[in-house]
Amino acid sequence: ANASTITMDGDFISSAGTFTFDTSTIVFAVSGTLTTTAGDRGTNTVYNVTVNTAITMTAGSIIGFGNTLTLTGSAIFARAGQTTVFNFDSADDFVCGATAQLDAAAGLLVWNPSADLNLPACTYDGNMQFENGATGTRTYTATGTLTFTDATAANYIADIVGANGDVISAANSR
What's the whole-model pTM score? Predict the structure, then answer.
């Protein structure tokens, strides 16, 4: 599905055939599970993912997100010990709707963009790690209210900058 838009009416399981990562958009129109073939987050990177309003997308494997993640519904990364990495390459690659939720559940969400990243108003739940990227310092700018619903959700190793320019946390763990 080279550079295609694939609208899912259920689960997306790439092990059933050949799927070329880093090229296509996957849209979850109904709740479902996103499962990639065996591998790590570097080899199993989806390009664009959209989760529609009132829909829940659950990650069924280790996944990396390489371009844009748009949530108007919810995304749950629910496997214990699972790591999901956001390797975004521009400031506005994460879009979060007013009722959306990004949930790490029993896993870990690692933010490792190749450019500074805007964190939109969203509900963030679970363990999150904000990294500086492989090429140096990254700035994460809160463009709205960031709601953390889990006390373990704040493992920062990069600066989080508030909308007014104040640093929220730097090299901090909680």
Answer: 0.78
